[in-house]
Amino acid sequence: FNLPSSSNTSAGVYKWDGTLVKTLWNNVRYTSGTHTAYWDRTNDDGFLIADTGYYVKVVSNNITYNWDGTVGNNSDSVTGSSKIRAFERFTSMAIAGQFAYYAVGYTEGVPSCYKFDINKPLNKINILFGEYNDIDQQADYVATDGTNVYWAGYDPYNVDLSFVYATKTSNDKEFTFTSGSSQGVTYGRTYASVIDLYTNNPNAHPSGLAVQKTGKYLFVAHKELDVINVFNKTTGALVTTLSFTAPREICVDGNDNLWVISGSNTVEKFTVNSNGSLSTAVLSISGLLEPLAMAVSPNNSKIMILDGASSQQIKAFYVSTGNSAWTFGSAGGYINSPAVNDNKFYFNDSVTMLTKPFIAFQADSSFWVGDVGNERVQHYNASRVFINRIMCLPHSYSTSADKTNPTKVFNEFLEFKVDYSKPLLPNNGSWKLVNNWRRSIPAEYYQHDKLRIFLQTVTLSNNRTYSILDKYVNDIRVPEIVELPPSGNLRFTGITLGDFAQDVWGTDGSLRRMITDRNVGDSGYWEVQTLKGFSNNNPVWNNPTIVATLPKIKATDPAFSNVMSPVVTSTGYNIIFNAEKDNKGYHLGAVKKGTGKYIWKTSKDTTSTYIGPLTL
């Protein structure tokens, strides 16, 4: 065979009716010119076959792939170590001088502690990277007195182990407490000096962290233990243990007083005695539904509290009196509408949003808010005017695009609008978060495995957008068609579909499914229901018709066992894909419309230890 230019090539042996007999090679690059290859007269199963009635096809291409960028991440760096990214989302932030220190909870293969220059907030600066770079402490809380930064969390692979360690603001190295002890984690570093150490108590995870700026005490709350431990922040020595009912978030104001969220959503202020004990409450904040996080302004005038439940607002109170100063944010957040803007917050819900929000002040009284439900950290000036944001999507198990309107791109419950006329860059308007559908999802529709959120989204001929969302009935998954309306919350149509491996929604609104038990010896067929029209904006389909039959299944067939969603090509090939590991056969196959036989089977299975060319 002759190639006019250097190319990537694949080759196969075919019957005259187009049936693939043998894949000779796949995705092998050849230089330009004439080349010779040989076929040993075996089929893909290794059996000798007659040497007549076949032809060989060589296909070539010079396709290259260009990575365009990322949707949902606005870091200045498109790639590299300064790009802001994390397995989970920001969980806490504390600011000292020029730098904001933040924790990101559970990580995989990297530390959980980072910082950024407040003048360059979209560039991550790594802390404690180097020798280990493994699954270190899951840091959930961070606090700073300007000299040290304190990190509180636990070992994610040994939940009985929790502790606090510190780094220096001067060089980001670990700080040594004279009363601390060395402690390792299961898959990461050995910390040189930790305090507040619990080695055999899964209920001891920290629930709050605060440190006095000029005073000498560090406070660590433990909700499940009903205590706040008080340490000398320099030596690490335990000073006293304070009894509280379910203490959660804590913070320290400009006079080193301690504020505590505890019990039944109580927010109280305490003065700290010289021996580390507390006075009786000197002030209590009222009018809160579910206080989640708090911080005091640098001028010690106001305490700002993130209120959850049906509020989803930032509420400011005067530190001296506890009286309300102002409320910021749309009441209810996303309860009534998924539309995203900079004055709506998603701090929590009772079903899907389990990560806590946070708030942190800069010296100029501007503040950062963890808008965790929208996967972003919002920055506002002292007058509550939006400045900028950090957006960083955590790990994702469900992404998709509208099949007929690909400007609609989904990451789990978030909907982005993508402008393909622009390069996919962080801050040029090529993408924008426009909707967050999470709040309107009832508990019975919550995706337990997070693998199947808004799959097969399509805008149909009535210009309405529909998707598939799983409903769980007695823990059995039932796919349901939902509408994503142009305004208002998600609409549940009540139209349920069959097993995900059978039902597929086409761009024309048709439903297609493969009917088979997927066992050896079984056969089956493909059927299609074309879209008939709409009734009350719900799709209505014609009766099903059979379009192709499935040959009797062998253990080596792609149709055996774990079959993914069947799709059809524009030329009428019904594609079967089996992703199951060690299937002992073919992963990919095609049956042409109107027939009952495979036109080709390929991507033959190998062992888990196979090393060699990719066998497509």
Write the layout of secondary structure elements.
Blueprint (H helix, E strand, L loop, with lengths): L1 E2 L3 E9 L4 E11 L2 E2 L19 E8 L30 E5 L2 E5 L9 E5 L2 E7 L11 E7 L3 E8 L2 E11 L12 E4 L5 E9 L9 E4 L5 E6 L4 E6 L5 E6 L6 E3 L5 E5 L3 E5 L12 E3 L5 E6 L5 E6 L5 E6 L5 E5 L30 E3 L5 E5 L4 E5 L5 E6 L7 E3 L6 E4 L2 E5 L12 E6 L18 E5 L5 E9 L2 E8 L7 E6 L7 E2 L5 E5 L8 E6 L1 E5 L2 E4 L3 E6 L16 E2 L4 E5 L8 E7 L5 E7 L12
Structure summary:
With 616 residues, the chain is an all-beta fold.
Task: Explain what you see.
The chain is mainly β. The protein is 0% helix and 44% strand. The strands form 13 sheets. Strands 10-11-12-14-13 form a five-stranded antiparallel beta sheet, with no helix packed on it. It has a four-stranded antiparallel beta sheet with strand order 6-7-8-9, with no helix packed on it. The radius of gyration is 30 Å and the shape is elongated. The protein starts with a strand and ends in a 12-residue tail after the last strand. The model has no long low-confidence stretch (mean pLDDT 92).
Strand residues, percent: 35-45%
**What can be said about the biggest beta sheet?**
5 strands, antiparallel
The Cα radius of gyration reads 30 Å
Extract low-pLDDT stretches: none
Shape: elongated
**Strand order, sheet with most strands:** 10-11-12-14-13
N-to-C terminal Cα separation, in Å? 21 Å
